[in-house]
Amino acid sequence: MSLLKLSNIHKSYFLGKEESKVLNGIDLEFNSGEFVSILGESGGGKSTLMNIIGGLDREFSGELLLNNEKLDHRKEKQLDNYRRGTIGYIYQSYNLITHLTVLENVMVSLDMTSLSHTERVARAKQLLEQVGLGEHLKKHPNQLSGGQKQRVAIARALASDPEIILADEPTGALDSKNTQEVLAILKKIAADGKLVIAVTHSQEVANHGTRIIHLVDGQIDSDVRLGEPDSQDKTPAKIEARPLRAGASYLSAFKHLLYNFKQNSLIIIGTAIGIFAVLLFSGLGNGINSYIQNQVNSLVNPRSMTVLSNPSGKKLSNTEAQQSMQEFSQDPTKFFISDQQLTQIKKTKGTASIEPGYQLGTYSLNYQGKNSNSSGIQSYTKAFADNNLKNGNWPKSNEIVISKQQAVTLLGNNNYRSLIGKKIGVVINWLSAQDTPVQVKTDLTVSGITGSSSASGQVTLLNYSSLRSLLKDAGARTEPNFISVNAKNLDNVNSVANSIRNQKINGKHAFAVMTVGDLLKTINTYVSLASTVLAAIAGISLIVSVLMIVVTMYMSVAERTKEIGILRALGERRKDIRRLFTAESLMIGFFSAIFALIIAWLASAALNHALYGLIKFNIVQINLSNVIFAILVSLFISLIAALLPARKASRLNPIEALSAE
Ligand SMILES: Nc1ncnc2c1ncn2[C@@H]1O[C@H](COP(=O)(O)OP(=O)(O)OP(=O)(O)O)[C@@H](O)[C@H]1O
């Protein structure tokens, strides 16, 4: 039984519809231990025959039998296995992978064997030593002479211990000394029990073998045996072939990334800028949200909620409740609370306290001939967090708390605090019971001063019962126009708010409720929306990144076409080639994300440092989910960018790829 049998092989090339027959019925049998030379004129079809034997060409008719088993050249997987496990290829132009070292070139083939990593490295070194290159393991192919390159190629061809070595003009590019050495190695390979088939133009080379086949007009013209093979015994293959390890693909992709470091680092920087901007805007959004939350919580008691009368009678959504709130601030005369409403609210479960309140119209404060005019004087409720009060105390009977700004207007910047304890004149405009304008005039003692610059610091507060009796004495309306409800604890704020929202009087929803949480939610929605829009605008630059990666990957496929051919000839599957490019792109994505994270971290540290003095708050807050998002987006875009180029690479015809320059 022969090791390899070709029967009735026909092959034609087509140029348009024009057929050009290259092989016209080749029948050959080969055995282990033979060193066969195929001679023939140029263009006679020798390489074509080698590609068919080597499992690279699938477009032919006829049969190939390996150990009497038919090789189905239509089945890609079977051919991949065959190239990987049975064939070792040596080319005239060496076909080494330029960005890999001598050792790594041999390892490419060994990575498709079941040997352990240590065994693979040991075997690669041993083979390279055998061909006299033990000293050159770390060199790249461009640092070697032609003879040395061919020996690397021989070591690589032998690496997976294949049964058949195909050598296409193995000495074509070598001087006579190197030719002799390479022939001696090939002879030894055959003597060790492998089948060596070499294509050559040189009779001298052919004379070294055990058999010479002449190919003329696509047919066997002569088949001459020069002697018996040194060894007829087929040494069983000891090394088992296996598909390429994923790890080897990733490592190889990483090596290529480093090899093309300059070009790739520009792409990484380009992509990172987009990711950085997305990160920074998201971080800024987070920072602004928590800044607002912080500010609001320091001024308003988060357990409190404001309850207004609801003239619509419908259950109000959060937005509608807010609209009522705005209307209330603009015109508080439309929101009087009836006794019935107050009594009903008092029954609400889960409340710690319920305080009716006033927010009145315009008013003026005067002290020693100086005036301060404003609007919206309020009664004090527990909703005001103590942080609001900068000096003094909250108002008791016949006392008033004014803002720092008002105090400064009345007494000047230097000694405005000394207004505490002094009586000031207060004039408040409100409505009479008949809804005609009424002025409430009185003198009240300043008990405290509220915060400086914040909006709520403007507020002027009176004690509720003092305000009520002042209104009564002046003949003005005395019904409160809001109720401040305090929940027992933070956890039941929402349930209390909901229960008030659902309360009905005469079948109609009677109240609008606004909690601090609702307020924050609305503000946060706007801030998040703004920061998302900014991040999305920044994200548009990621489209440019995708295109950059796509172009780079296509260029990489074009540059590496020959390498793809070599890898395919060594037995890598289409899938392995696809993974090689996808992995490289994913690495670009990953490093872009890491780089973006570093610059985002530096930028946020710098911004926070610069602004801390101003707002006493870290305004850029990049959190873990932003980081994860950035990495995922980066990986996603690099994956998308790799899809088409990787597909193209994997679909290249191995023979055409090998002949690329
Ligand atoms: N892809 C192809 N498309 C069309 N014709 C092709 C293709 N590849 C090879 N040929 C033709 O097939 C014939 C055989 O080519 P092949 O490369 O097998 O010859 P060869 O015997 O190896 O020649 P050489 O000794 O010069 O390398 C040539 O005429 C060549 O032009």
Automatic annotation (TrEMBL):
Subcellular location: Cell inner membrane
InterPro entries in the record: AAA+_ATPase (IPR003593), ABC3_permease_C (IPR003838), ABC_transporter-like_ATP-bd (IPR003439), ABC_transporter-like_CS (IPR017871), MacB-like_ATP-bd (IPR017911), MacB_PCD (IPR025857), P-loop_NTPase (IPR027417)
Xref: Pfam families: ABC_tran, FtsX, MacB_PCD
Residues spanning the membrane: 265-285, 533-558, 579-604, 624-644
Primary location recorded for the protein, binned into one broad class: membrane
An annotated GO cellular component: plasma membrane
GO BP field: amino acid transport
Keywords noted in UniProt: Amino-acid transport, ATP-binding, Cell inner membrane, Cell membrane, Membrane, Nucleotide-binding, Transmembrane, Transmembrane helix, Transport
PANTHER family on file: CELL DIVISION ATP-BINDING PROTEIN FTSE (PTHR42798:SF6), LIPOPROTEIN-RELEASING SYSTEM ATP-BINDING PROTEIN LOLD (PTHR42798)
Family: Belongs to the ABC transporter superfamily. Macrolide exporter (TC 3.A.1.122) family.
The protein's name: ABC transporter-like protein
